[in-house]
Amino acid sequence: MICDLKYIYIYIDNQICRGKLINSNLYKYTNTTSSPVPIQERAMVVFTYADEFTSPVSPARLFKALILDARNLIPKIIPSVVTSIEIVEGDGLSAGSIRKINFVEGSEVKCVKNLVEEVDEENFIYRYSMIEGEALILEKVGKISYEVKFEERAEGGSLNKMTSIYYTKGDVVLSQEEITAGKGKALAIYKIVEGYLLQNPHAYAN
Length: 206
What we know:
Structural class: alpha+beta
Oligomer: single chain
Number of helices: 4
CATH class of the largest domain: Alpha Beta
CATH architecture of the largest domain: 2-Layer Sandwich
Distance between the termini: 39 Å
CATH topology of the largest domain: Alpha-D-Glucose-1,6-Bisphosphate, Chain A, domain 4
Shape: globular
Largest sheet: 7 strands, antiparallel
Number of domains: 2
Strand order of the largest sheet: 5-11-10-9-8-7-6
Strand content: 35-45%
């Protein structure tokens, strides 16, 4: 979390800025302006969380299964959770594409829409933002961005990193439960796909 008692980090004009508390109503953003900015004009508070997981599966296979062919594989192996993954705009892989993940009837969340920002097939990096879904979270945030990176391990397998950036509305602070709920779903899907790849060593091997 990039926040402490003396400073607050916010998102203004496409820049992450550090603000120093002057009094209960004013923050001074030393890296954007020399004039104090009224607290009500603050756009967003930024919180960053990072997780790392190791896997015996190679980065290339995980990237192909979880990112490149997700729309086909995930509904196939987890039909009790995900009914389909639709490409709403674009081709699903290029920047600006929108993927819609539809969950089974009765799920807490009916669907989630993700905006693709980058798919780097050479370095196994996927960047995207959630733009619809998880209603309780999106009531409090203006945007949630994710970066998923799959890296080779010297001893084999992969080191997989996921960074989540929450741009909250105003002074909203997200609870640990709200953060872990969304990450828990993603991790569950990740582990199921990993298990599938371990049981099918030839899948996505080429």
